[in-house]
Amino acid sequence: MEAPPQESRSLSASKNQSLLRTVNEELERLEKDWQPERLDLICECALLDCDEKISMTLQEYSAVRAHPARFLILAGHEIADVERVVASSDGYLIVEKVGDGGEFAASHDPRRDD
Predict the structure, then answer these.
(1) Which one-letter DSSP state was computed for residue 114?
(2) Phi, psi angle pair for 95, to nearest 5°
(3) Model pLDDT for residues 34-46, shown as the tens digit of each residue
(4) Strand partners of residue 55
(5) Is 99 in contact with 81 (CB distance < 8 Å)?
(6) Half-sphere exposure of 27 (CA within 13 A, CB side)
(7) Which residues face 26 on adjacent strands?
(8) What would the DSSP string read from start to end of 41-100?
(9) Residue 22 belongs to what H/E stretch?
(10) Spatial strand order in the sheet of 70-74
(11) Spatial distance between the Cα atoms of 73 and 23, rounded to a whole number of angstroms
């Protein structure tokens, strides 16, 4: 019997990042009532041991989240073969997942319409 194909690196990274994005979505939801000047969000990179924070405004985070395959990460945490940098600002990057990872991210976007 043949072993199942190994999950692609892009898909595996996207699964990890989508989980962190869900945590940040909850942080944003909780903070909206308080209207803070800045949010401290979790880096949404694919590095399993990363727990670093990124500070930005609600408007900045909403701009990142306007596209379902994009994630907020610290500079230096990008993985060139599974994502491309689409913007950078103040020590952080916005990356867009490519290939099957991009498809997974879009289909697991907490903001998507069902």
Answers:
(1) -
(2) -115, 150
(3) 667 888 999 999 8
(4) 40
(5) no
(6) 21
(7) none
(8) EE---S-TT---EEEE-HHHHHHHTTSTTEEEEETT---TTTEEEEEEETTEEEEEE-HH
(9) helix 9-32
(10) 70-74, 92-97, 83-89
(11) 14
Structure-block tokens of residue 57: 């405004």
39: three-class secondary structure by DSSP = strand
Q: Whole-prediction pTM value?
A: 0.75
CA contacts within 13 A on the Cβ side of 56: 26
Question: How many Å separate Cα 81 from the centre of its chain?
Answer: 16
Residue whose tokens read 């689409």: 86
pLDDT, tens digit (0-9, with 9 covering 90-100), for 13-33: 887 888 888 888 888 777 766
Instruction: Say if residue 104 is exposed, middle or buried (CB neighbours under 10 Å; 0-12, 13-18, 19+).
Output: buried
Terminal CA-CA length for the chain = 38
